[in-house]
What we know:
With 401 residues, the chain is an all-alpha fold. It has helices at 7-23, 30-38, 42-70, 73-91, 96-124, 127-158, 160-181, 195-198, 203-207, 210-241, 245-248, 250-270, 275-292, 299-327, 333-361, 366-388. The longest helix is centred in the middle third of the chain and has 32 residues, at 127-158.
Amino acid sequence: LLRNYPRQFWLIFIGMLISTIGTSMIWPFLMIYVSKKLAVPLTQVASLMTINALTGLVFSLIAGPIIDRLGRKWIMVVSLIGNGLVYLLLARAETFTSFALAEALLGAFNPLYRVGADAMLADLIPAEKRSSAYALIRMSGNTGVAIGPAIGGFVAVHSYAVAFIAAACGLIFYGLLIGWRGQETLPAIQNGASQRERSFEGYSRVLHHREFMMFIGAFTLTSMLASLIWVLLPVYSNIQFGVPENLYGFIPTTNALMVVTLQYLVTQVTKKHPPLRMLTLGTVFYAAATTLIAFFSGFWGFWCCMVIMTIGELILIPTSTTYTASLAPADMRGRYMSLYGLTHNVASGIAPLMGGILSDSIAPRATWFGGGILGVVSVIAFLLLSRRFSASNVPADAPEM
């Protein structure tokens, strides 16, 4: 396995593990922390995610052309170190304004790393190995998530400041590691690729790629389901049913352990099937998990819902990243990955706020029924996409032509 991938791939693998241990000590509990510290309605707390998503939306669009033009490495370094400094700012935040500023900065820095890393992996790894490579990187990140929340849940009960500092240290260390040992992977400009295509106007090529844009629309709906669960379930379980942080921490840890132990094996199966069919199947699990949360009131019920969602995640995420990489021309990978990353920003901007409004105006369980309806729409969208583009719906491990 070590010989199958270049050294820089393993550099990203190790850095992802270290940084994720730090960040996952705090992010599953961040909304609980803000809710208790500010004592404001859930809608206002969820609006912080909307602020994060709006800046992420802008910087995701900016990231693509910059990464396609200037390269991957140093943009990733700036993102990682910048994120680390923002976590130190969060440790000292006392007002809604200070939390909003920190979330805006996180929204600005996050897409730079995500787009850069996805494009770098597409540069490094040949098409027939990409789905497995993306699966391995997810295993690395989720190993960190398996460790971080279990520790962070106990740390947060006593001192959130320690968790914030741990997150900052992990991110800054990874940034320094990439800066010191990483190599630039930006491909040479292809014949006929103009400066205009390397600018923001180059997005017009992506926007006219009908199959990709329809995929982005459907995947955004699915990402909204994930955002509802990751952002609002900790608050919902804590405030409505008294599930404490140190117990809830085992829910994201379960997600991570499933990814670590099962992701590579699941990907070996899913990559042999048409990607759009796998995306549809994964979305079914997301929709089921979101709806079922409304029928439970304790730790084990919520834990089961996370298990169901994680099965969908094992199918969906490596398939979607590989599908994006396979559709993107080499000189446009940054932009394709930017728009792919926008699904996260749009979902994070809409879904938690929508869930907060449903909770505050109707009932807490309305959040999950609303998510269930959204899940049905998402499944239908992928079914239509699969039917329309069945000719190009080839297995994910098919080599590039």
